[in-house]
Write a structure and sequence with these properties.
By secondary structure, the protein is of the alpha+beta class. The protein has a 4-stranded antiparallel β-sheet.
Amino acid sequence: NLSSAVTQGAEVWVIDALLQAGDGTYFEVVERGGMDHVIKERQLIRDTRENYEKDNPTPLSAMKFAGVLLEGGIVGYDSNVQTGGNGAMYLGVGTAVEYRVDTVTVAMRLVSVSTGRVLVSVAAEKSIASYRQGASAFKFFDLGTEALEIETGYSVNEPTNYAVRQAIEAAIIELIYQGATQKLWKFK
């Protein structure tokens, strides 16, 4: 919860990945993160119906319960797992290229609500690539009393949030395949 290296709202992508799995046919996702809001809204509906439909208030449908829970989180963000580059300078004029790779790791487990048993446990990693290229010139003029220095360059950094989302989606896919392998479900 304290790191700002990765998003703190990754559950949005977990829900989206579950809803998209099998073109929306694999999972029926129920809200639990914002349960307080759901309960307050249901109470508001119930109170309103009781006040305005005094004789026969329309009852609310029962809320769905979950058969399994998906637990887990972003368990690692490793910086500089790979770095490198090259460059050259001659007579104060040069160029350089550098890269670095970070890694984000996501772990998930599917837990049976009725037994508490962990049915499937998976982990997925995604690399985050950064690249920088630059050129520079350094020259002394007028017997070394004046200096000219010029630098230019650019960098490309893969968005960390994109990498987190990709790791989550990879973990969901692996969870689906492991569940099928363990005969928890089967594909049509």
